[in-house]
Write a structure and sequence with these properties.
Elements: H1 11-14, H2 17-23, H3 32-48, H4 52-60, H5 70-76, H6 78-90, H7 95-107, H8 111-124, H9 129-141, H10 145-158, H11 163-176, H12 179-192, H13 197-210, H14 214-227, H15 232-244, H16 248-261, H17 266-278, H18 282-295, H19 302-312
């Protein structure tokens, strides 16, 4: 349902690629024309995207709209530079760029900037699940969940139709372990917007975990999948609902997508292993459950994974 928080100190895993890209491309490795284009594209990005971290993040991340990495496109030719500049002009604000900026600031321990960038990303795209995860991680790491809860409770009371505020209030309650409080908030979100993706996803996952309301959970998981087709957490939720409904064969595609998109998440591997176990493929089940426990011996569901492995035998 949510992304795991990277371990502090695991810089190779947590530091976004954008940080490393600029360091690997010093001016001495570029031609004079490439230096000029690098300067021009950075100036254009900073003019259209703020804070600076959002501009740097945009340049170094893959852009589906451009079909490549904006910085590399700009370095490659004047035509590539022009394409990037035109894209920036027609898309002056980007939730994905602010999300990447938040990741960058988080990796650099610049918590205030990370929070600001994540909140901006959510304001631009209230369905950006990863930005909510970053905010929740920030508040948890800083021991500020209670303060954040009060802030978002106040905001959601003042603005009852504010989907991001209500969603964040529910997300914080999830992190606090308050399932009933989280459910109440997410239900309020759906009362405002029946197709709100994050509330639909989280309620579906909660019901799958509880083994309750599984028909409704499937409908909500499918709603979330339609809105967020590329999110591994949503793939995992949909697959897990299928598993809990006794339809493991239907779970393979979304769960395999989740594992492929986020191979370091032990919960996704555990869910896929469970699906294989219920479908009678003991070898594949054993492989995935062992992989999950290798990633983390204490993830939520680890005890069940161990019991399933024991039941499978050698």
């Amino acid at each position: 349902m949510t992304d795991e928080v990277p371990k502090k100190g695991d810089e190779a895993a947590t530091k976004p690629a954008m940080v490393r890209t600029f360091r690997r491309s010093p001016p001495s490795s570029l031609t004079p024309e490439q230096c000029r284009r690098q300067t021009d594209v950075l100036r254009a990005a900073c003019e259209h995207l703020a804070p600076r971290g959002a501009a740097i993040a945009f340049l170094n991340a893959y852009s589906k709209a451009l079909g490549g990495n904006p910085l590399q496109l700009a370095l490659g030719s004047d035509e590539g530079l022009l394409r990037v500049e035109q894209h920036l002009s027609s898309n002056p604000t980007s939730a994905a760029s602010y999300h990447l900026a938040a990741q960058t600031y988080l990796a650099a321990d610049r918590m205030a900037e990370a929070e600001a960038a994540a909140r901006k990303a959510i304001a631009l795209d209230p369905s950006l699940l990863a930005a909510y995860n970053i905010l929740g991680s920030l508040y948890r790491q800083q021991g500020k969940l209670d303060d954040a809860q009060k802030m978002y409770d106040r905001l959601s009371t003042e603005r009852p139709n504010d989907v991001p505020a209500q969603t964040m209030a529910g997300t914080i309650r999830l992190l606090q372990g308050d399932m009933s409080g989280a459910r109440e908030r997410f239900e309020k979100v759906l009362a405002v917007d029946s197709r709100a993706a994050i509330a639909s996803n989280n309620l579906a996952y909660m019901d799958a975990e509880a083994g309750a309301n599984l028909d409704i959970a499937l409908n909500r998981a499918q709603t979330a999948k339609a809105a967020l087709p590329d999110d591994p957490g949503v793939d995992d939720t949909l697959g897990w609902v299928y598993v809990k409904r006794g339809l493991p064969a239907l779970a393979f595609t979304p769960l395999e997508q989740a594992v492929r998109k986020d191979p370091r998440n032990p919960v996704y591997a555990y869910h896929l292993g469970t699906a294989h176990a219920k479908n009678g493929d003991h070898d594949r089940a054993r492989e995935m459950l062992q992989a999950a426990l290798k990633l983390s011996p204490s993830f939520p569901g680890a005890d069940d994974a161990k019991r399933t492995l024991q039941s499978l035998g050698n």
